[in-house]
Write a structure and sequence with these properties.
The chain has 193 residues and is mostly helical. A hairpin with a 2-residue loop joins β2 and β3. α2 crosses α6.
């Protein structure tokens, strides 16, 4: 991330052994401009899980601080789809998702979600895209090639990040995430927010 972007949105990262949010154990959370990450004694993903947690939580800080284009993002979802609106329900739903690729993955990928975790709230949806965009771009590219709605959301998020820090376009070009086809175009018939 460009230093200017980090300085503007992130003041500190705190490491804890465990985190509990409304009675649910979590891997990470943010508050104000701080990120809290749980670092358990053992983690099957090792350092990768901490990296993904940082991308995830930083995307929340950017989402709330940077005028995210919510209308454009909503337009990619099916018209009947609704995110949860109660914070406790969102936390519980997010905790219940296994964040793996279960048998139903193809269904939610086709609907424009990289993870069932993202179906709980728009913020969580953006978080899961940011994790892949910054931490596993090859996986995101594979999903974009197969699922047009995922490609559209990826483009919206890239446009958002490069609006906040234009120099991020260098990273997106280097890892091959820059939009490269009409299939990947984001909805244009909408307001910026």
């Amino acid at each position: 991330y460009p230093p200017m972007l980090v300085r503007k949105y992130l003041a500190a990262v705190f490491i804890a052994r465990t985190l509990e949010i409304n009675g649910v154990t979590g891997a990470a959370m943010f508050a104000n401009s701080w990120i809290y990450v749980a670092v358990p004694a053992r983690d099957e993903l090792g350092n990768k899980s901490y990296e993904l947690s940082l991308h995830h939580e930083l995307s929340s800080l950017l989402f709330y601080g940077g005028e995210f284009p919510t209308v454009r993002w909503h337009l990619v979802n099916e018209p009947e789809f609704q995110y949860l609106d109660n914070q406790v329900d969102i936390i519980k739903a997010a905790a219940l998702s296994n964040r793996k690729d279960p048998e139903q993955a193809e269904t939610w990928h086709a609907a424009g979600f990289v993870s069932d975790y993202g179906m709980a709230s728009m913020e969580n949806d953006v978080n899961t895209f940011a994790e892949l965009m910054m931490g596993d771009p090859d996986k995101l590219l594979l999903l974009c090639n197969e699922y047009p709605k995922i490609a559209q959301k990826k483009n919206i998020l890239i446009q958002f990040y490069t609006k906040l820090a234009p120099e991020m376009s260098t990273y997106f070009n280097r890892v091959g995430l820059a939009a490269n086809s009409d299939r990947e175009s984001a909805p244009l018939n909408s307001a910026s927010n």
